[in-house]
Amino acid sequence: MPDPVRLPYSQLDQLPDRDPEETAEWRESLDAVTKAAGPHRAAYLMRRALEHNGAPGLAPLETDYVNTIPTSAEPAFPGDEAMEARITAWNRWNAAAMVTRGSRFGVGGHIATFASAAWLYETGFQHFFRGKEGDGSGDQLYIQGHASPGIYARAFLDGRLTEDHLDHFRQESGGKGLPSYPHPRRLPWLWEFPTVSMGLGPLSAIYQARFNRYLQGRGIKDTAGSHVWAFLGDGEMDEPESTAALALAGREGLDNLTFVINCNLQRLDGPVRANFKIVQELEAQFRAAGWNVVKSLWGSAWDQLFQLDTTGALVRRLRQVPDAQFQTYATRDVAYIREHFFGAEPALVEMAKVLTDVKIAECFHTSRGGHEARKVYAAYKAAVEFKGAPTVILAQTVKGYTLGPGFESKNANHQMKKLSGKEFRAMRDLLDLPIPDARLDEDLVPYGHPGADSPEVRYLQERRAALGGPAPARRLHASAALPQPEERAFKALLKGSGKQEMATTMAFVRLVKDLMRDKETGRRWVPIVPDEARTFGMESLFPSAGIYSPKGQTYEPVDRDQLMYYKEATDGQILNEGITEAGAMADFIAAATSYATHGEPMIPFYIFYSMFGWQRTADQMWQLADQLGKGFIVGATAGRTTLTGEGLQHADGHSHLIASTNPASLNYDPAFAYEIAVIVKDGLRRMYGETAEFPTGEDVFYYLTVYNEPKQQPAMPEGVEEGIVKGLYRFKEAANATSETPRTQLLASGTAIHWALEAQRLLAEDWDVAADVWSATSWGELRRDALACDAARLEGEDRIPYVTRALAGAPGPVVAVSDWMRAVPDQIAPWVEQDWTSIGTDGFGLSDTREAARRHFGVDAQSVVVQTLAALARRGEVKPETVKEARQRYGL
C-alpha cells in the first residue's frame, strides 16, 4: 500500500493560534528530532506526550468538531453555482411533490432524507460520478435507500422519467411503477445496487471496491478509473454490517472507495447519539481502521465565529454539546441559543455580543457543510485525490432541510409523508421556483420542470455527457454471454468413481478444478471460501490458482515444501476471506453481477458450511437476487446428521426451506457426482448462455448442497438428464416386483438416497415388499414447476406438473426421506396423487455418529422400512402387526 498523501492544508488553519511563536517552537523541535533520529522517533515522542497528558480530546484518532478543510483551503469551484442551485431546487421540489401526491393512495415515501442530502448527491452528479459510456464500468453508486425520491426527481428533470412514472411511485403492479427504493430487479435500467436493507450497502461497497482491484490484478478488466461511492446515514452506521469490513478497506488501501455519511444526527425516530457525538465516534472508528477522514460539518456562516474564537471556547463548547441538544438548537429561537449555548462560558457570552440574531439563527438552524456545494466539492475532491487509503466524508446536514419548520430536525420527520399547501408555498419561495400560486391551489401539488430545452436541463445533460453519460444507470453488455465449457470437464463425474469412495463435496470441487482449466471460461471462475478451504478439499487449488492478495506473498509459507502449499498472489483467483460469511457473500454479489457492472461475466462459486449460509446471511441472498446476480452457492458438509460430532449449531436441516422462499434461487440436493455435473452444466447454460428470451442468460443463481460422506459414485444411467434438472427421476427399480408383491415408491434426496437403497434391500429381503427408489434432486424445482402449472390452468392451459407426470402410474404409497426437516419434501405433496408420507430431521441437531444421529431422528434405513410398512398397512396391503414386528426386529 502506498503511503497516504500529505495534505496541503491543516484542519487547524481555520482556528486562531493563541501563540504562533510557541507553535513554531514545537514545529522546530519536531523537525530537529525527525532530522536527527527519523520520523518514527518524532511520532514516538508525540504519542508519549499525548499518553502522559491523558486529557479527553487529545486522542490522535479524534480531531476538533470543525471542518477538516478550512474555507481558505477550498479549491476553486468549477461549476455554475447559481445554475446548480436551480437544478437542485427543482429536484427538491419534485421529490417532495412525488411523495406527497402518492400519499393519497397510502403508499408512503420518504421526504426528509433527500432534503438533507440533496447537495451531497447533486455535487457528485455534476462533477464526480462517472457514467458507463466508454469502458462500460464508470463509478459504482450505492444510493441511500430513503433518498430514492430525489434520484427519481433528477431522472425526471433530465428526461429519463415522465410525470406518469412519478405518479406511479410505489405502485408497481401495473408494470410501469417506480420501486420504493433502489431495486435493480424492479427497475433494471436505472438501479445497480439495492441498498435499503441497511448495513448491506456499506458492506457491499467495500467488497465491490475490492473486487474492482481483483479484476485489475487478474488482468480481466482495467478498473483503475472506477470509483465506488457509498451514501449512508449516520443512523445506519449502527448496523454491524456497516462497519464489519472497515479494516479490510484500510488494510488493502482501497483508495477507489469513498463513504459519504449524511450526519443529520437523526435515526428513523430520534437522535443517533442523543447523549454523545456520532461524528466524533465515527471519526475515531474510521481512523482506527486506517481510513482518511474528511469532516464537512459547518457552512461558511460559521467562519466568523471561528475567527472570533481566540480562547478556544467555541471549539470546546462544540465538543461538549451532545447531538440531541444540537438538534434542539436547530429548532429553537435565538434567545434560547444565546442562553443555553453561549451562556456556558464567559468567553462565549462575549462572543455572542458581537453576533447578530440573524447570524446566530443562520449558523444554528441551517448552516451546515453538507448544504453548501463548495464545501461538498472540496470534500469530494480531497477524497478522490487521496492515495493509499479509503476516505470517509462526514457531512453534517439538517434532516428535512428546506421543507420548513414543521419538518426540519423533527423526530417524527421520517414518518411524515406529505407537505401541506402552506408548506409547499413556503418551500417554493425559499427555493425561488417559478410556480404560480394558482397551481398550488389545485387538488394536487404540481410537478415542476423548466423545459426540455431550458438552461438547467442543458447544463445537467452537458455535465453528465462530460462525465460519461447518465447516472445512476445499469447496462447489459453483449459480452455477458459465455460459451459452454468443453465436455471433458464433466466426463470424470459422469463415469463414476468405480470402487473408490468420494464425497459429493469433493466431487464438486474436482469438477470446478477441471472447469477452471477450460480455455474459454476457466479464468472467469471465482472460488470464494470463508476460511476452512481445506475442509472442503480446496487446498489442491492453492498452488495452481493462487489466493488473491493485493500485496502478493511477502512471507515464506510454513508449508512451502509441500505440494499443496499456501500460495498468495496479486493475480490469485481464489478469494479466501477468513472467518466472515458476510464478507464472502459480499464478494459473491460483486462477482455475480460483474456481467452488468463491468461487462465482464464472472462465474463465482461460494462454498461454506451449509448451516452458515442461508441461516446466517439470508438477507444478502435476497440482495443477490435483487441485484440479479448469477453463480453457484454451495452448502457443503450439508444435512442434519451427516456432519458428525459438530452438534446443534453446525447441523443444517433447514437451509433448503429458507432457500425455497427466494424466487431467484434454484435449489438442488444432488445425491451423486454425476448429478452435480448435469446440474452445473445446465446452470452454466441457463445463467451464462445466450437465447432469444435471455440474451445475457437468466437472472437466477443456484444453491447446491453437497455432503462430506464418502460413497462409491455410480456412473450416470442413460436418459436421466431431464429428470436431474427438473428434480426427480427413478434411479433404481425394484427387482422383486410381481403382481402379488406390495409396492411402494421411495423418494430421497442427497445422502438419504443411500438410506433409501438400503431400505429397498431390507423391504425385499425381510418383508417381500417391492420398492422403487427415486432420486429427488430438487424438491424446490418440482414445486416451482407445479405452481407454474397451477397458474397456467387458471388461464385455460392444460398443463400437468412434472412431478405428477413422473409418478403417474407408480404403484403404492410414496415415502419421502431426506436429511432435511419434513417441510422440505412436503413442498410437493399437493401434486403427488399417491398416498404421501414424509420423514425427516425435524428438531435440533446433536453430536453423535451418523448412525446414532439417524436413528435418533428416525431416518435411517430401518426407520424408512418401518414408515413404509406403516403406509402400506394403512392401505391394507400388509398386516398392522407387521409394523410392530419390524420395529422390534430393528430395535426401534
Automatic annotation (TrEMBL):
Catalytic activity: N(6)-[(R)-lipoyl]-L-lysyl-[protein] + pyruvate + H(+) = N(6)-[(R)-S(8)-acetyldihydrolipoyl]-L-lysyl-[protein] + CO2
EC number, UniProt record: 1.2.4.1
SUPFAM superfamilies linked to this entry: Thiamin diphosphate-binding fold (THDP-binding) (SSF52518), TK C-terminal domain-like (SSF52922)
Positions of the Transketolase N-terminal domain: 144-296
Known function: Component of the pyruvate dehydrogenase (PDH) complex, that catalyzes the overall conversion of pyruvate to acetyl-CoA and CO(2).
Residue intervals of the Pyruvate dehydrogenase E1 component middle domain: 482-713
Protein name (database record): Pyruvate dehydrogenase E1 component
InterPro entries: PDC_E1_N, PDH/Transketolase, PDH_E1, PDH_E1_M, THDP-binding, Transketo_C/PFOR_II, Transketolase-like_C_2, Transketolase_N
Gene3D superfamilies: 3.40.50.920, 3.40.50.970
Pfam families noted in UniProt: PDH_E1_M, Transketolase_C_1, Transketolase_N
GO MF term (any one): magnesium ion binding
Annotated region (Disordered), positions in chain: 1-20
